[in-house]
Amino acid sequence: MMNSKMKQLLTALAISTAVVAAPVSSVQAAEKAASTVEQGKKLATSRSKGNCLACHMMGDGAMPGNIGPALIAMKLRYPDKQKLFDKVWGTPESQTVPNSMMPPFGEHGILSDDEISKIVDYIYTL
Predict the structure, then answer these.
(1) Rounded to an integer, what is the distance from CA 93 to the centroid of its chain?
(2) pLDDT digits (tens, 9 = 90+) for 56-100
(3) Rounded to the nearest 5 degrees, what angle is found at the Cα of 75, between the Cα atoms of 68 and 61?
(4) Which NCBIfam families match (predicted)?
(5) DSSP code per residue over 17-36
(6) Which pLDDT does position 100 carry in this prediction?
């Protein structure tokens, strides 16, 4: 009898722990995603890295350039996030604008793939 009560108690404890732990991991995932977006914003606005503001109006960036298009409604313009990554990376297939002044950031080693992914995550929020 005591063993069955103990098993019920341990089972209830295990279930309640699993229920409580699930939201914590989803909160951590959301915080990680927000952190990635913030890192992408820093890279995109950094003069020594992405420097997207030199050519594009974007978000709350100060003193944007006007060589490139404004970075707004990016989810609508690039429903496939990989195509936006390819555009920033600089694959020849993604260069739909002939004689574009946008440098191929990945191809030329200006930014790493991880840095480009973070910038794309940020730009996707615009």
Answers:
(1) 22
(2) 999 888 889 899 999 999 999 999 999 999 999 987 776 667 778
(3) 45
(4) thiosulf_SoxX (TIGR04485)
(5) HHHHHHHHHHHHHHHHHHHH
(6) 81
